[in-house]
Design a protein that fits this description.
Strand content: under 5%
Distance between the termini: 38 Å
Number of strands: 0
Shape: elongated
Largest sheet: none
Helix content: under 10%
Length: about 50
Amino acid sequence: MLEHRLTRPGEALLLDDLTVRHGTTPIECAIPGAPAWRDTLVLTFAQSRES
């Protein structure tokens, strides 16, 4: 099982969604009580099925 935390700006992880089980951890704010957020970009590539 791969466990990896993305910690640097622009860091990416590519995986095969059909063969890899994945999830995310809860958002933890560095300063208790301050707002926190997580930016996520998900791209899906699929093979076209032309007749």
